[in-house]
Structure formats: C-alpha cells, structure tokens
C-alpha cells in the first residue's frame, strides 16, 4: 500500500494532490504503528486448581512488569512474616533513597517509618513506590541485593522468564517478565500465603486522616474477583493480574500491554466470563514450588552466574522484538543495568488508573492505620547476610592453587561455603564430564561485597572447556567458559 502511494506521489504534479496523498499515506502509517502497539499485548488464563492453561496469547513474550513487580516484593514480605522474621507491627524505616521515589507514594520523610502492615496496604491499594523500596531495603539490606533475592525466588517458583531490578516496578530496561510468569506468581501468593492473601482484596484504607483508594476496579465489579494487582508505565502499557473464585472453580488471569485502564479491565472481564465456566471443579494441591525452603540468599548461587563474560557453546538467545534490552534472564554478577533516567517523567500509576471508568462499588472496605512516626530503632534486615568485613584489595585466594589455562564457571555466591558446596554437587552430578578437572573458588568484589566464583579448571584449550560446558548444560547445569 505504501509503495503504491509513493508511486502515485512521484507521478503527481499538483501540490494539492500531493498533500492529499501524503495525508492518506500518513493515515496508513499510523495504522501500522497502532497495529504494532496492539501486537505488544499478552494474556493468559490458568485454572488455579489444576494448572491447565485455558487461554493464551503470547504468554511467553517478554513484557515490562511495571507495578506487578510489587507482587514479588509482597511475596517475600509474606514469607518473612510467616517465618517470624518480622511482624505486622515491625517498623519499616524509609531511607533517603526510598523517600525520594517518584509518585505514587505514601510520602514518608527520610528517617520516618510505618508498620509493615501499613506498607503492605499502601502497596496493594495505592501501589506506593516508596513503601516497596523501603520494604526491599529492610528485607535485603539494600535494594540491589533485594532485587537479586526477588529473581532468585522467581527461579525457585519456576518463573524462568523474569528478572527483577528493583522492588517497585519503576522503569528499568533490565527488568522484564512474561504473562505466564505473572500467573505463576499470582497462584503462588494464594497457595503459599492464604493467611495474608486477603490484603489483595483491600479496596481502601485510612492513612492517618487520609482515605487511600485502590486502583483495582474489578473488585466489586466482577463476581468472585479477590485481587491481585494493577500496573502501568508508558513502556509496559496497562497490566492486570486477577484472581477469581466462583464456587469450586478458581482461575488466575493476566492481561499485559493494554491501551487503557478501561480496555484492559474490559478484556479481563471478558476472559473471566468466558473461561471461568470451563475451569475444573476438582483438582488441588500445590501448582508451584512450595513456599519456604532455604534462605533466599542461598538461591543466588545459580542466579548470579554471568553469561556475557566469555563465549559459550550455545547460540545467543533471541530477544523479543518488543524488548528494549539485550539482557539475559539471569542477574549478571559483573555487570549492572542503570535505572531508566526517565523514571521521574513516567506517568504515575495512580494518574494512569484514573483514566479508567470509575465503577460504583456497593461498599468500600476500609482499614484505619496510624500516621507515620519517626523510627526509634534500627530495623534489622530479615534475610540479608551480615555486612561483611571490608573487602581486601588483594585477592585472598592463593593464586598458586588456581589452575592456569581455560576453566568453566558454574556458580557464584556471596558465601565461599556455598560456592564450594555447588562445586561438590556439580561433581556428583557429572563425574565423567569433570573427571580430569579440579574445582576451586575465586573471590571478587562487587558493590563492597565479596562473592566467590565456583569454577573447574584444568582444560587445555577453549574447545575442551566449551565441550565440557555443553555436556553440563545437557544436565541442566548452567556454566560458561573463561580463560584464567
């Protein structure tokens, strides 16, 4: 079509005709752009009792999660509550970093604090960015470490297409997910923490004298909807995860990349009406990995494995066309992605959600919480490892014991004992592949923290290292080759 129009323009001698044809051509081009944006949408509906996928549209395509990110922040918060690491009345101190987050937010001043429960309520209703950051810093020691914990937990739950870079979902090109992964997380939140899941059905709460209303307009509009989370940035479009129960049936739906809050809500409503009757009345049992387990820091041994430091036997993964990053879905140990400098200019989720049609609710459920108070005591991180001693300027490993030549790295951990344990485990999993190799750990420093690489050395050439790495990957053991 466009080529034909250009041909007509080239033959036209009348300026007026040329302008009219140009206007028509621009209409066609704009239509193409709109089609391209529409292609960015993704959706999935999963039977939450059996795990059966009832509907799927580009469910594995990479998308920006926006405030759906807070679902994982809340997951780790619920986990800390369930383990007794924190309580609902524990004080969450807002650092200068947390207090400086752009709206929407509670607006707590640096050094001020709120209870864990208030922070939770502000996230499920107002989608408060400052509360998410403050909780992340409380649980992980700092937000960077907490983001690694989030990604590690995602892997443990089977969310293999997700990487987290912050606790709140503000724009970051290295943070992405899929509709399928968000459905998995939605199911996990209800399966693993039914005692806290009721927070997601909260439609408003009183913060001091201020009533804060929620963004999820399907609550009270669609029968059976009991949460979970909305999200929006310009890059992501309008996102929504909904959990719905109707009698013995239960589903979780995800819509990502909506063009408006209203159209997104209507799409979700249509999916619920269509697929809820098709959900099973039977089934049961956990559909995703059990909650609990070891400290999330332990899971970092695999998550921290880089893939860009040296060539690997595999072809480079193909990145979805709509994704703005070439990041591999693994948090790299030797590289960080800077936060999007345009974050401050992104429309806030609250402002965006106000563009959706207001739904009349029968009755607003309200919880009253106290206004912020200045913290009187330091909050101890619930999961973070103790702050290590100052990193030595010289590598503490005896370099004479490090094999020269080519090696393969299988993990990296903030604890040497965990790196060594991973070496032992890998040796047992692939004794023939590593029969002539020797395992060792190498320390390196990043952001003031010492980590330990777990490597196998003794390979005489790059080809030999690549061959061994290929064999390990066939056993689902991640690795990469590097020259010592």
UniProtKB/TrEMBL annotation:
<dbReference type="GO" id="GO:0008360">
    <property type="term" value="P:regulation of cell shape"/>
</dbReference>
<feature type="binding site">
    <location>
        <position position="229"/>
    </location>
    <ligand>
        <name>substrate</name>
    </ligand>
</feature>
<dbReference type="GO" id="GO:0009002">
    <property type="term" value="F:serine-type D-Ala-D-Ala carboxypeptidase activity"/>
</dbReference>
<dbReference type="InterPro" id="IPR012338">
    <property type="entry name" value="Beta-lactam/transpept-like"/>
</dbReference>
<feature type="compositionally biased region" description="Basic and acidic residues">
    <location>
        <begin position="307"/>
        <end position="317"/>
    </location>
</feature>
<dbReference type="GO" id="GO:0071555">
    <property type="term" value="P:cell wall organization"/>
</dbReference>
<dbReference type="GO" id="GO:0042834">
    <property type="term" value="F:peptidoglycan binding"/>
</dbReference>
<keyword id="KW-0133">Cell shape</keyword>
<dbReference type="GO" id="GO:0009252">
    <property type="term" value="P:peptidoglycan biosynthetic process"/>
</dbReference>
<feature type="active site" description="Proton acceptor">
    <location>
        <position position="67"/>
    </location>
</feature>
<dbReference type="Pfam" id="PF05036">
    <property type="entry name" value="SPOR"/>
</dbReference>
<keyword id="KW-0961">Cell wall biogenesis/degradation</keyword>
<keyword id="KW-0121">Carboxypeptidase</keyword>
<feature type="domain" description="SPOR">
    <location>
        <begin position="400"/>
        <end position="484"/>
    </location>
</feature>
<dbReference type="Pfam" id="PF00768">
    <property type="entry name" value="Peptidase_S11"/>
</dbReference>
<keyword id="KW-0573">Peptidoglycan synthesis</keyword>
<dbReference type="InterPro" id="IPR036680">
    <property type="entry name" value="SPOR-like_sf"/>
</dbReference>
<dbReference type="InterPro" id="IPR018044">
    <property type="entry name" value="Peptidase_S11"/>
</dbReference>
<dbReference type="InterPro" id="IPR007730">
    <property type="entry name" value="SPOR-like_dom"/>
</dbReference>
<dbReference type="InterPro" id="IPR001967">
    <property type="entry name" value="Peptidase_S11_N"/>
</dbReference>
<feature type="active site">
    <location>
        <position position="127"/>
    </location>
</feature>
<dbReference type="GO" id="GO:0006508">
    <property type="term" value="P:proteolysis"/>
</dbReference>
<keyword id="KW-0645">Protease</keyword>
<comment type="similarity">
    <text>Belongs to the peptidase S11 family.</text>
</comment>
<keyword id="KW-0732">Signal</keyword>
<keyword id="KW-0378">Hydrolase</keyword>
<feature type="active site" description="Proton acceptor">
    <location>
        <position position="70"/>
    </location>
</feature>
<protein>
    <submittedName>
        <fullName>D-alanyl-D-alanine carboxypeptidase</fullName>
        <ecNumber>3.4.16.4</ecNumber>
    </submittedName>
</protein>
<feature type="region of interest" description="Disordered">
    <location>
        <begin position="307"/>
        <end position="357"/>
    </location>
</feature>
